[in-house]
TrEMBL record:
<keyword id="KW-0647">Proteasome</keyword>
<dbReference type="GO" id="GO:0005634">
    <property type="term" value="C:nucleus"/>
</dbReference>
<dbReference type="InterPro" id="IPR001353">
    <property type="entry name" value="Proteasome_sua/b"/>
</dbReference>
<keyword id="KW-0963">Cytoplasm</keyword>
<dbReference type="GO" id="GO:0019774">
    <property type="term" value="C:proteasome core complex, beta-subunit complex"/>
</dbReference>
<protein>
    <recommendedName>
        <fullName>Proteasome subunit beta</fullName>
    </recommendedName>
</protein>
<dbReference type="GO" id="GO:0043161">
    <property type="term" value="P:proteasome-mediated ubiquitin-dependent protein catabolic process"/>
</dbReference>
<comment type="subunit">
    <text>The 26S proteasome consists of a 20S proteasome core and two 19S regulatory subunits. The 20S proteasome core is composed of 28 subunits that are arranged in four stacked rings, resulting in a barrel-shaped structure. The two end rings are each formed by seven alpha subunits, and the two central rings are each formed by seven beta subunits. The catalytic chamber with the active sites is on the inside of the barrel.</text>
</comment>
<dbReference type="GO" id="GO:0005737">
    <property type="term" value="C:cytoplasm"/>
</dbReference>
<comment type="subunit">
    <text>Component of the proteasome complex.</text>
</comment>
<dbReference type="InterPro" id="IPR033811">
    <property type="entry name" value="Proteasome_beta_3"/>
</dbReference>
<comment type="similarity">
    <text>Belongs to the peptidase T1B family.</text>
</comment>
<dbReference type="InterPro" id="IPR016050">
    <property type="entry name" value="Proteasome_bsu_CS"/>
</dbReference>
<dbReference type="Pfam" id="PF00227">
    <property type="entry name" value="Proteasome"/>
</dbReference>
<keyword id="KW-0539">Nucleus</keyword>
<dbReference type="InterPro" id="IPR029055">
    <property type="entry name" value="Ntn_hydrolases_N"/>
</dbReference>
<comment type="function">
    <text>Non-catalytic component of the proteasome, a multicatalytic proteinase complex which is characterized by its ability to cleave peptides with Arg, Phe, Tyr, Leu, and Glu adjacent to the leaving group at neutral or slightly basic pH. The proteasome has an ATP-dependent proteolytic activity.</text>
</comment>
């Protein structure tokens, strides 16, 4: 029975298809996702948002079941606004990662079918990235993190393309190429990409075109 449940939950994660990746540069980070919303192999939309803003220096990407991603984001915005009212400041990325982890673990017996990717600039504009599973087990990294149905090919592309201490433009080029190369190898994600490049002084949003077949 337990094996059957595991198989069902795997199918749920693959139901809408997704690809999310975050990568660290020199005092900057980039977070990117594909734009396809599908129902298994049928494409429903080609402009679906998977990367959400928490504040100017903190973003979260949510792969997995699209409806759960939207619900979880609304709950996280609510929690962050409560924190801002109480503390009169924005939440640091490390604290936000702990909040997301606790929120997911709280629902572990009926989980949100999402795998978050968190990226932000912390103290002294030090980039912070992490990912976690659907019950909040954190995985920290100094280079890149990935999630979604294209995660296997994303790992391979990022491993081969990543270099430490990249400047913002090189970081944008690297994460875009890695995302494009990966979603071309995954039939459940793709149809272009959305890339956010965040430095201490600015946030750049770019939409990249990809294969539409």
């Amino acid at each position: 029975m337990a094996g059957d449940l595991g198989f069902v939950s795997l199918q749920i994660f693959e139901y809408n298809g997704s690809a999310v990746v975050a990568m660290v540069g020199k005092n900057c980070f980039a977070i990117a996702s594909d734009r396809r919303l599908g129902v298994q192999l049928q494409t429903v939309a080609t402009d679906f948002q998977r990367v959400f803003k928490i504040h100017d220096k903190l973003y979260i990407g949510l792969s997995g079941l699209a409806t759960d991603a939207q619900t979880l984001y609304q709950r996280l915005v609510f929690r962050h606004k409560l924190y801002q009212l109480r503390e009169e400041r924005d939440m640091k990325p490390q604290a936000f990662a702990s909040l997301v982890s606790a929120l997911l673990y709280e629902k572990r017996f009926g989980p949100y079918f999402c795998q978050p990717v968190i990226a932000g600039l912390g103290d002294n504009d030090e980039p912070f990235i992490c990912t976690m599973d659907c019950i909040g087990a954190k995985e920290l990294a100094k280079d890149f993190v990935v999630s979604g149905t294209a995660s296997e090919s994303l790992y391979g592309a990022c491993e081969s393309m990543y270099k430490p201490s990249m400047e913002p433009e090189e970081l944008f080029e690297t994460i875009s190429q890695a995302l494009q190369a990966s979603v071309d190898r995954d039939c459940l994600s793709g149809w272009g990409g959305y890339v956010l490049l965040v430095t201490p002084t600015e946030v750049q949003e770019r939409v990249i075109k990809g294969r539409m077949d």
